Amino acid sequence: MTRWKIIIEYHGARYSGFQRQPDVPTIQVAVEEAIQKFCQQDIKIIGAGRTDAGVHARGQAAHFDLEYGERTLSAFELCKAINAHLRPQPITVVHAQEVPEEFHARFGAKTKTYQYRVANRPYKMALEEGFSWWRKKPLNIDAMRAGAKYLIGEHDFTSFRDSECQATSPIRSVDEIMIAVTPIINGNDILFTVRGMSFLHHQVRNIVGTLTLVGEEKWKPEDVKTALEAKDRTKGGPTAPAYGLYLHDIAYE
Amino acid sequence: MTRWKIIIEYHGARYSGFQRQPDVPTIQVAVEEAIQKFCQQDIKIIGAGRTDAGVHARGQAAHFDLEYGERTLSAFELCKAINAHLRPQPITVVHAQEVPEEFHARFGAKTKTYQYRVANRPYKMALEEGFSWWRKKPLNIDAMRAGAKYLIGEHDFTSFRDSECQATSPIRSVDEIMIAVTPIINGNDILFTVRGMSFLHHQVRNIVGTLTLVGEEKWKPEDVKTALEAKDRTKGGPTAPAYGLYLHDIAYE
Questions:
Q1: Residue B105 in domain
Q2: H/E segment holding residue B182
Q3: Are B11 and A185 an interchain contact pair (Cβ–Cβ within 8 Å)?
Q4: Interface test with A, best of B8, B58, B132, B186 (most A CBs within 10 A)
């Protein structure tokens, strides 16, 4: 038996998130079916974490155990075989490696990095539709960076947590929020990078939604601190839409 | 009468190129119809240049003349009105400005910049399908850069010109070919930027197709020089597909 770690890239638009659920298309179901088709075994994959409906990934991680008889299977052959059965879905296994039996995609994950993409200009995107959140008003980048600082470190993130979040504790630690800006015609392409050990339900999307309020100067940077300290979801900003969010990377020790 | 310069962004997949042709959808037709709908005038736009079927643009330029009675119209109002009538097509007017009557989008264009995007890794893209050309074999970037150097300057580009090209002369001047590399999981996202006064039919796509042969080490960098000097299209490399190409910018004096 071999334990494999795989890295999965996907466009989330047509899926009800990563995790298997009854009667709806999910990334997990698609990948499991593709593995089953090539190896004729009833394989379950364990993902590093859920992603919500519509959220994309460049670096979702998962593991599974495979019996493959006498023959050894290379990582390239494995990826190729799974990808052949995933076609034409917008899901690709971009990396595979054999890992020790103790490896666990979920419990072994040390850091998760998400990216959120915002198109900031007066007119909607012809090329980034479904890949980026369109914000018409010019966003003040310095103000957003100043507001983001209040969220770094360990905090009670109740104000940034979906009311349906099932985590037992609202305490989370955010290691980094980077805001990178690429000029485009009449505006900016803005990429938020948010890194932490783990996140609450909608936490990254609520952070981005809140920071855009600061960017639009409806909030002052210090209002982020006030919202955080309120420990009340109704005091946080709006939830940015799913289609701007990318699970970028899962780091293991 | 006011002459307007507009900058147009579009995803080219569903269009038979920029220029009006009978009985097929083109970008020009879509933009003219949108302008006509809001101003009730039979407006013709003059584009800076054609783009082929399937080619995208971030910075196509065009001009047209508009009578708008007593009322003055702001650039923002103009863009908004055209874009409202373009919806839901993947075409957006991202900039507009009043220009002198002598301004001509085609004859006044000094430099054109195209970008070509290549996804270089063993497995196909889940997120960049239709936006980037997938090349499986690892491309040697230094070799491609060395090969590109032979194309800089004024040359007879017959070997890089489509057999149906209608230009009277095959002489063109390429000012710059930049090759930027962004690492992705298991590969690279490669962006070619090609700048010149004007280009022959398929010239940029043939340059990229040829340089990928050098990147795959099927050709040596010097073979690009040999191909160029042959002045024979059959000695050039293949034509890279339309969906990786972006008309990036048109510069005016």
A1: no
A2: strand B171-184
A3: no
A4: B186
Place of tokens 């002052």: A220
Query: Per the domain annotation, does A53 fall within a domain?
Result: yes
Answer yes or no: do A78 and A170 share one domain: no
B140 touches chain A (CB under 8 A): no
Chain A, 78 to 97: residues with Cβ < 8 Å from chain B are 79-80, 83, 90-95
Domain termination residue (choose one: A99, A128, A150):
A99
Q: Quick one: B40 and B148 in the same domain?
A: no
Interchain proximity B94–A127, CB inside 8 Å: no
**Residue of A175, A5, A193 lying closest to A106 (CA atoms):** A5
Q: Is A24 on the interface with B (CB under 8 A)?
A: no
User: pLDDT at position A89, please?
Assistant: 97
Q: Across residues B152-168, what is the average pLDDT?
A: 94
CA atoms of B83 and B65, how far apart (whole Å): 18
Asked if omega into B138 is within 30° of 0 (cis), the reply is no
- Residues of chain A in contact with residue B185, where contact means CB-CB under 8 angstroms, are 7, 9, 58-59, 94-95
- Give the CB-side neighbour count of residue B206, counting CA atoms within 13 A: 23
Cross-chain Cβ contact A92/B58 below 8 Å: no
Q: Identify whether residues A83 and A33 lie together within a single domain.
A: yes
Confirm whether the ipTM is greater than 0.85: yes
Domain residues for A43? 2-99
Q: How far apart are CA B226 and CA A122, in angstroms?
A: 48
Mean pLDDT of B80-89: 96
Which residues in chain B are contacts of A97 at CB distance < 8 A? none
pLDDT in tens, A50-100: 999 999 999 999 999 998 776 788 999 999 999 999 999 999 999 999 999
The helix or strand, by DSSP H or E, that contains position B96, with its residue range, turns out to be: strand B91-99
Distance CA A231, CA A148 (A): 17
Residue A56 to residue B83, Cβ atoms within 8 A = no
pLDDT at B71 over 80: no
Q: Which residues of B1-22 are buried (b: 16+ CB within 10 A; e: fewer)?
A: eebbbbbbbbbbeebbbbebee
Ordered alpha helix ranges (H), chain B: 27-39, 75-86, 141-149, 203-215, 221-230
Q: Are B8 and A185 in contact (CB under 8 A)?
A: no
Of A99, A126, A149, the last residue of a domain is: A99
Examine residue B90 and state whether it is found in any structural domain, yes or no.
yes
pTM for the whole structure: 0.95
Please, which residues have CB within 8 angstroms of residue A23's CB and are 6 or more apart in sequence?
none
What are the DSSP E strand ranges found in chain A? 2-10, 46-47, 56-66, 91-99, 109-120, 133-135, 153-156, 171-184, 187-196, 245-252
Listed in sequence order, the DSSP H helices in B9-158 are 27-39, 75-86, 141-149
For B121, the closest of A90, A94, A121 (CB atoms) is A94
Tell me how many domains chain B contains.
Answer: 2
Partner-chain contact B94 A186, CB within 8 Å: yes
